[in-house]
Write a structure and sequence with these properties.
Number of strands: 10
Structural class: alpha/beta
Shape: globular
CATH superfamily: Class I glutamine amidotransferase (GATase) domain
Strand order of the largest sheet: 1-2-3-10-9-8-5-6
Largest sheet: 8 strands, mixed
Strand content: 25-35%
CATH architecture: 3-Layer(aba) Sandwich
Helix content: 25-40%
Number of helices: 7
CATH class: Alpha Beta
Length: 214
Amino acid sequence: MVRGGWEGHVPVEATGLFVGGLTRDGYEVEVSDDLEVYADRELMGRVDLVVQCWTMGEITAEQIAGLRAAVAEGTGLAGWHGGIVDSFRSCPGYLQLTGGQFVAHPGGFVDYQVVVRAESADHPVVAGIDSFEVRSEQYWVLTDPLVEVLATTTIPTGDDDPWRAPLTCPAIWTRRWGKGKVFVTTVGHQADVKDLEVPEVHQIVERGMRWACR
């Protein structure tokens, strides 16, 4: 687990929600508060999964090169909300790796629905989970066509909004990168860990971590 960046997303508390479950399932969990671990080729070569919770911040050329290489060789990458899709905004190599980038959350905290796509209903990350509602930040994200979208959310438009029509964005997706797998969910605002305790959200994150693991 690599955690840090903007403290408003309480990375220590948020990642702490998942350490126990991973440990009980037999995973050996190492926690780092420093991005320099990504440049440690020996460490990254033996890690099966990186769970990242690092909002905004900067990443060096050596660090992103190490992370990209590790995932390409089979290390999984997983995360939620700003900890994975609002990280390292100025690094194109990171954005390419994750396949998406946060740009806005209109209205702040709002009630919204996450809709599991019918064609993805059998995917192990969302199997058996119906569409569900949360009250949190609804992420407007830019993604590329190589992500496998498992669930979406639709941002409405009002009379005073500059966009002309409701916008449907991916809310949960996966991605292949070389031999590795990437899992992303935009749901789960870390400033209030109760978001991550919503049963569907918590289950999806846990499943996403296990799916991405080498």
